[in-house]
Specification:
alpha+beta; two-stranded antiparallel ribbon; about 45% helix; globular; binds glutamic acid
């Protein structure tokens, strides 16, 4: 029987070194011009444990945009604003084998409900439900939720990425207008899209993702002693949907090999949460054809195996 490895900086450095070569198997996303500027070789990992330890290695200071990772945060905001029942009247809970920006099931299935909140259609529907008197106020609501979860008051939006998203967001526009036509979106479509583009464009670092993962691991508390800042039920829902749909159409495989909730984005970031134990933030901009950081997934697979983190195998 292999000995349980301890989570130390030296150990994490080794994981980083062994995972680095996998970046060569991926490519930086270039369908949005501003994303193509990322360094494909960068790899950074930050782990924040529930007992307050923080370990960071590699290029963990790299700034990147949340992209699809924001879908988890907007889901939680909408759940807090409208409640579980109202949210899932407009968006499903089921995984999909289709790409993140797919349009095909929107007409064919499920009373035109997007399959889940982690695909673009679902996230735009979720954005349309977030409360506030205008886009700015609704955006600030998300930003302040993120500041709470990360303990980082300096979070801002990346204006260049936002403009790039807006300019090239034709597919997202078509998803949104289709949903308006079927009544899934009841509020202003352009506002829902604008919010969605803004959420995607929030700048973060690995440490922010690790802290969010830790907040999730603590069921909506900053540490296990503190008060609940977000409903534990809503955090639970978000983590469940991350497990079933967080890694695009590779979520099933990831659940088998890694076995804890995670959400990735096309910027190459991954937010992961090991219940009761730790949050993990990884950045590795070279992604595979499904949208997941190749080196980043290798990091999480290794950690899961070495530290016995798989929820279903321990
Ligand atoms: N900017 C992305 C979009 O097309 C988000 C994609 C992602 O990270 O999956 O909506």
């Amino acid at each position: 029987v292999e000995k349980v490895r301890k989570l130390t900086t030296e150990y994490l450095e080794r994981v980083l070194t062994n995972s680095r070569p996998y970046s060569a198997q991926g490519k930086v996303a270039d369908y949005i011009p501003e994303l193509s500027k990322a360094n494909p070789q960068a790899l950074g990992i930050t782990i924040a444990t529930c007992d307050g330890q923080v370990i960071a290695v590699g290029e963990c200071d790299t700034k990147f945009t949340l992209q699809s990772i924001s879908k988890v945060i907007s889901l939680i905001r909408a759940l807090e604003d409208c409640g579980e029942e109202a949210v899932f009247q407009k968006v499903g809970m089921e995984p999909t084998g289709d790409p993140f920006n797919s349009i095909i099931r929107l007409e064919a299935l499920n009373h035109h409900k997007p399959l889940n909140p982690m695909i673009n259609a679902g996230a735009i529907a979720v954005a349309s439900m977030i409360k506030g008197k205008n886009v700015e106020e609704r955006f600030q609501g998300i930003l302040s939720l993120l500041k709470t979860m990360t303990g980082n008051p300096k979070l801002t939006m990346n204006e260049e990425v936002y403009q790039s998203e807006k300019k090239t967001g034709d597919r997202n526009r078509s998803l949104a207008y289709f949903m308006k036509s079927t009544g899934i979106i009841e509020t202003d479509v352009e506002e829902a899209l604008d919010l969605y583009f803004r959420f995607n464009s929030i700048n973060v670092q690995c440490s922010d993702l690790a802290k969010i993962g830790c907040f999730f691991a603590n069921q909506g508390k900053l540490s296990n002693k503190q008060e609940e800042l977000v409903s534990a039920d809503h955090i639970g829902i978000a983590k469940t949907i991350m497990l079933t749909s967080g890694m695009y159409n590779a979520s099933g495989e990831f659940a088998i090999h890694v076995g804890f909730p995670a959400k990735s984005g096309v910027s190459g970031g991954i937010l992961a949460s090991v219940p009761g134990q730790m949050g993990i933030g990884v950045i590795g901009p070279a992604i595979d054809e499904k949208g997941n950081s190749v080196a980043g997934v290798h990091v999480l697979k290794t950690l899961s195996k070495d530290l016995f983190l798989n929820m279903f195998r321990t």
